[in-house]
Structure formats: structure tokens, C-alpha cells
Amino acid sequence: MVDNPHSQLQAKPACTRKLRRALADLVSPRQTRSEPGEPLASRAPRILCVDDNPANLLLVQTLLEGMGAKVTAADSGYAAIDAVKAHDFDLVLMDVQMPGMDGRETTEVLRQWESERHCTPLPIVALTAHAMANEKRALLQSGMDDYLTKPISERQLAQVVLKWTGLALRNQASENSHEPTRHTTQLLVLDHDEGLRLAAGKADLAIDMLAMLLASLEADRDAIRQAREARDNNALIERVHRLHGATRYCGVPQLRAACQRSETLLKQASPNAVAALDELDQAITRLAKEARSTA
């Protein structure tokens, strides 16, 4: 007999994976990860953030900790698996494209481990700078529960934490949903106001994020050029995606737009990708020049 039959109710339309999980729990109740007797609403959520990009990891960790979460950072899929096996978490925020073991592969390993131990599946939310419709479906099919598109605001983080853990974060900054939109030709090379907004109004964090992007910019350009010369499309998509992810949290509108267009066209195998990559290279040059002139 089920202790609390209402806990097994599913909203319509039911998610297939969640429905299978609920049915399995009815037949064979799983072990819970939470400490017994711990009041859920009286503690800070324990969140594992996984991202191979140190700038992105720094920003998400800073925002979450600023709202009261207890955050553990992992810079690879392998480190994430070790962390989940060693500690209890309420939620995992998982970057999708990582070298070695990507977010989907990491999630599949964790789901297998959970299944073998008959424990409650840990909510895993994908973080991605760029995902097409078919890629979003693949994320959910791999075992992830949800996804967020970068850049991610404090409000979005608080909402996804509450949705999947039932724990509320505090002091979310007000969010301006009416930010001005500019045509591509009007995008700024360097927009400090946007950088400050993306860093949730934290000036020191905005400065750090831009500095980390600029420090790796030349290496990113070289890696993209080498992948182009080698005609290695997979490596090219990976390198452009990595740079695209870094631009999502910095006030660099031109470069971000060039990354997004290049990544989209590369994934579509469009002949226009060549011109887009040329524009991306020029956008990197403009940003480096602008940064030097304002330093």
C-alpha cells in the first residue's frame, strides 16, 4: 500500500520518463537521498554545478551562493560523477558540451548508477548556450529533467531550483524583461551596461567574466582556425560552441551574435557557414582591439 497516494499523481499530459519512474516506484519504492527528519523548507538547497568553462562556472556559482544555495563546482563529467557518489545533492545543473564526457553521457552514467542502487533519481537540468529542437529532445531522452538556455538570470535559477527541489532561494534581483533589442548591424562590440546586467548587477563579477573571456580569446581564435583548416566539422562546432557559451555572460553583443549564427549554420551544414565563420573571426579582432583601446 502506498503511504501517500497523492504523491503519485501525475499532471496531464504525463512525461513518459516520469510516468515510468512513478510506476516503478509503486512496484519497488526507491531509497531517498534526503536525511531523515530534515525539514525541507528550512535549509539551503545543495546544488552541483558542472561546466568545463571556468568563467561560466564562476558566474552560476556566484549567483546561486548569493541567493543562499550551497554550491559544489565540478569542471568535468568525471568530477560530477565522483561528487554525486560522494555527497547528497538536491539538484544538478549540467553543462551539455564538455570534452571527454559530455553532459548527456554523464547523465546516462548517473541514471544507471541510481538504477542499480534503487535510489530516487536526482533532478538534472541541462545548461546550454545553443540547442536546436532535436537537440533539446535528445537532452530529455538522455535522462535529463529540464534545460535552461544561457545566459541564465538569478530569477531563472531560483525558479528552476524551486521547481525541482521545492526549496526557495532568496533575494532574487529584479529582472528587466524589456531590454532594448538592436538590429545585428547596430550591435555594440563591447557593452559594459549589458555585462553588468548579465552579472546580476555585480560589478566585480562582470569585470572578472570579461577578463576571463579576453584572456582566452586568442587561443579560441587559433583553435577555430585550426579546425577550419583541418576541415574537422565536429571540432569546429565544439570550439565555436565553447566560445559562444563564454560570450553569453559578457557584454559582447557582436561576438555573441557571430557565434550564434556560426554555430547554427554549422549544425545545419549550411554553405553560408563559411561566411559566418569569417565574420566571427572579424568579430574577435574587433573585440580584442576595442578591449585594448578601453583598457
UniProtKB/TrEMBL annotation:
It is an enzyme of class 2 (transferase). Residues 202-295 form the HPt domain. Coiled coil: none annotated. Its main location: membrane. Gene3D superfamilies: 3.40.50.2300, HPT domain (1.20.120.160). One of its GO terms (cellular component) is plasma membrane. It is a multi-pass membrane protein. Keywords: ATP-binding, Cell membrane, Kinase, Membrane, Nucleotide-binding, Phosphoprotein, Transferase, Transmembrane, Transmembrane helix, Two-component regulatory system. The modification Phosphohistidine is found at residue 241. This is Multi-sensor hybrid histidine kinase. It comes from Pseudomonas fragi.
